Amino acid sequence: MNPTENLFSSERTLSREVLGVVEAAALAAGRLMGTGKRDAADQAAVTAMRQTLSEIPVNGTIVIGEGERDEAPMLYIGEKVGKTQPGLPEVDIAVDPLEGTNLVAHGLPGAVATLALAPKGGLFHAPDTYMEKLVVGPDAKGKVDITAPVKYNLSILAMSLQREVQDLTIVILDRPRHTQLIQEVREAGARIKLISDGDLMPAVSAALIGSGIHAVMGTGGAPEAVLTAAAVKCLGGEIQARLRWRNEEEKNRATRMNIDLSEDRIYRTDDLAPANELVFAACGITTGDTLKGVNYFGNGARTHSLIMAYQSGLVRFVDTIHLSREKGGRVKL
Ligand code: VTB
Question: Fewer CB near the last or first residue (10 Å), C or N of the chain?
Fold first, then answer.
């Protein structure tokens, strides 16, 4: 590829542009940490994200957002965002301005502000339901199988990572629906990290070496699966997922979206995030395994973000200090 072309590709440029978007959402939501006000925290993140998105040089369409137009006034599915001028790239955007509303409300670890961006048609328009997920990093990519027994997948994962099953840590959402899964993981001998919310960032951690997390298993949000796919694709990892409907109404809505209702169909990384140009961004709100939370101090705040561009092969951890000029700031190393 022509290096100049690559240097100026929209993916590379946009990966820089979206940093401010996730940072703004995190800075706004982080102020509400521990207040118990989950809706207010979500609203703060949504408002800040929508405002900053409007400055990004794209013709954007929200494909995963806060809900249908009639139920969400901002960042609803189908909303046009960005500078929206003729000639700007047509992109689809998946947003989760506050992944882990309960985590922020209670001051628990692992909440982030996140989004993924791709050329039109580059992200699966996931229905608002659940998906059963299996997420692993690059070493086990193509080797695990969501239809296989848990014990089998854990032994493959251990082999891929050149360790024993007992040295693996699997993240699972702490929900009654996972009783059997938890039992099977325990019987296989792996360690478990049960989380109260937020299965997206643990999936990112599973795709990174040195995070201490080796896989995510279990059923969580389908929209989060698309963001997960975008992130793990950038990191060379893998997600396999199957739709899990909660009720008839969800199925009816999905039928109107032309989605195959089968619970057997396996969605892989490239089904959920088929784009070849792909940007993923996340900014920590409360400190988790991979990203630090927002730190506020007298004259500003500090944020920690992960920004990735798939084709350009960029994985950036960005530590930003946002100084307040009025108060006069000094920067600490
Ligand atoms: C899932 C998970 C998310 O909310 O959507 C979960 O993917 C909701 O599950 O990361 P329940 O309905 O069982 O609570 C999160 O944990 C946070 O948005």
Answer: C
